[in-house]
Amino acid sequence: MNGNDIIALGLGLEKPWEITGQFMNTDCKPHELRITLTAPRGSSFPCPDCGAMCKAHDFTEMTWRHLNFFQHHCYITAAVPRINCKDHGVKRINVPWARKGSKFTLLFEQAGLTLVREMPVLAAARIMEIPDKTLWRIVLHYVTAGLAQLDLSELKAVGLDETSAKKRHNYVTVFIDLDRRKEPVVFAVPGKGQDVIRQFKQFLTTQGGAAGNIKEVACDMSKPFLSGIKQSFPRAQVTVDWFHVVQTFTKAVNKVRVLEARKKQLPRTTRWAVLKNEESTGLSEQERQALAELNAMDFFTAIAWRVKERLRWVRKASTAQAAKWRLSNFLLCMAEANLTKSPLLRPVIAAIETVIRHRRAIESRWESGHSTARLEGLNSIFQAAKARARGYRNPQTFISMIYLLASPVGKLLKST
Prior knowledge:
The chain is of the alpha/beta class. It has helices at residues 3-11, 106-118, 121-128, 132-148, 194-206, 223-232, 242-261, 270-273, 285-296, 300-315, 320-335, 346-357, 359-368, 373-388, 395-406, 412-415; strands spanning 18-25, 32-38, 44-46, 53-69, 72-85, 89-92, 157-166, 170-177, 185-190, 216-219, 237-240. The strands form two sheets. Strands 1, 2, 3, 4, 5 and 6 form a six-stranded mixed sheet that branches.
């Protein structure tokens, strides 16, 4: 096997294309390896529309950037023909080593996509020695192409949550397939609320799915989300993840602490102690002492903290029936606890009322086994990527990275 055969194998050349010239230009920096490809005279080429073999009509010389040859830049040049198809007229053929309209070979773009998944686009562009905007255009092309191929006809259970795109309340809402173990992201869109639910429904329809197929939607207790789900997916059962229930009560406890701290001095480390549970191994000795003092003096902050702790008993239920029974008893105990004796406990009362309103959705978590825990884990990955890149110019670039990191779109890397 000679040098031309090795290069042809690397390029994936198919007949009638063959390497007819090589030239190393050492007068520029970095040095450039120029490879010329030619097809023998009289060769036939497939029509890009129907695949029928046709004779060349005319030729245009074109050049593509290829992967570096060691430390040297490499370029592929070929006279690309237009064919005259009897059914489709004069058409420029598609070359096997590059996609239509690109100035780079498929292998060069694949290398760029691989680097982008592991590092910021700007850093990847510097390594490849191309402008970062050029690399972004490559990324956006493959993300768009991947989404067009996405099949959502079997989608039945969806989880959704927002993630921060920029400062000042700029969000992206991410939708995942709860039944998909790997690469679960199926849709991401700027914003949050009812409108993103409608956009997802529209996207679902274009990708072969149907609103009637969605049996379950897992989300937080946001009113816009719940309202949007009711309008767009009326047959779906809403599931509220336990994480959001605990988060609601944790915020309520902290509000009580802030209100009480304005009137009296609380033990030191109270702020962090009440965020943890009594059995937590992360409790320091000072925090344990603070909890003991709060309970001994019966501070309102201690009452709020004990309410939050009782939720842990509900969470430990092993079956749906046990969860319903425990939740009923929890609410009964709260009704008998006389939490209205002080206005400082209003945040806790509001949290309990939230549980009552969304009780059916909370209990659904034990019935289906689905939750938004995976979304919370994915959110940390998305935010880490955003931090490495020091932010993104706009939500669309952030969304492209979300697709590359956690959706089936990433499989395109293996097929280019």
